[in-house]
Amino acid sequence: MVDESLMVQRMSGRKLSGLIAATYTPMTATGDLRLDVVPKMVEKLLHDGISGLYVCGSTGEGMSLTTPERQSVAAAFVEASAGRLPVIVQVGHNSLREAQALAAHAQEVGANAISATCPSYFKVSNTQTLVQCMKELASAAPETPFYYYHIPMLTGSNIEMPEFLTQADDAIPTLVGLKYTDTKLFEFQRCLELANRQFDVVWGCDEMLLGATATGARAAIGSTYNIAAKLYRQMTLALTSGQLDAARKWQSQSIEMISTIGRYPFHPAMKAVLAMQGLEVGSCRLPLESLSPTQTQALRNDLQAIGFFDWCRAPAESGRA
Length: 321
Hints:
Layout: H1 4-12, E1 18-22, H2 38-47, E2 52-55, H3 67-81, E3 87-90, H4 96-109, E4 113-116, H5 127-138, E5 146-150, H6 152-155, H7 161-171, E6 175-180, H8 185-193, E7 200-203, H9 209-215, E8 219-222, H10 225-240, H11 244-261, H12 266-276, H13 293-305, H14 308-311
Parallel strand pairs: 1-2, 1-8, 2-3, 3-4, 4-5, 5-6, 6-7
Helix pairs in contact: 2-3, 3-4, 4-5, 5-7, 9-10, 10-11
């Protein structure tokens, strides 16, 4: 039996920091898993200065994988990380029973935390129901910290997060915070400051990292940290050293990069960029599209035109744009 009061006390001091990569799931051209690529992915991210891994989220096509596949992916990243950086496994599912199975497995293989979206086919429309859903899910991993994954653009659930945190605090012993993937900096700040800064609220919008950092974010989870971690590290270094103009320039380059990639199907394009950087992670599954060879070459040309391949090799110690 887990002592819930001790669980809250033990988990309340744990907070994520730095850039956490929302990892891609490596696949073959036919959409089968290629878990042999995972160790190479982890080594690249460690080399780039990433401080954590977020597995089987939107970026990792978690919702397009079967439960056994998601379990295999989670286990592969935990094993490859070998305790060198935290691994957060996203276990959300339209079936709360399946989500519980994923949560229990993540705890079993040694994930440092679990995270979950709410069910989205049947929309969650009120705070009480959201708390009940997440309580049921998190109960399957009673020794593992839990982060609710707030991404209303995909779940359709627009519940106010300060209200959720307040109600969920007593109901979910393992709750430590949120993955906040929305653009409402004012709500993000309220969540950060709630209950004497009790909760670990992690930012999830790469294009607005500068604003979130200025607001108080200590950690961020994002897709583009896979390909341009050094750019974001430059931005953070510039901000912390008081070079605000330089920090703005780095964020501007991030926005331009994301806008450029966004002219194409985004996640397939991101996988193509990883291949350009020497890391073959394959294509995506339907309903995500695949890039044609013509699109891939056009993407490369577009990224060269904005200087991307220079940015992603920028020396980490420099704070100047």
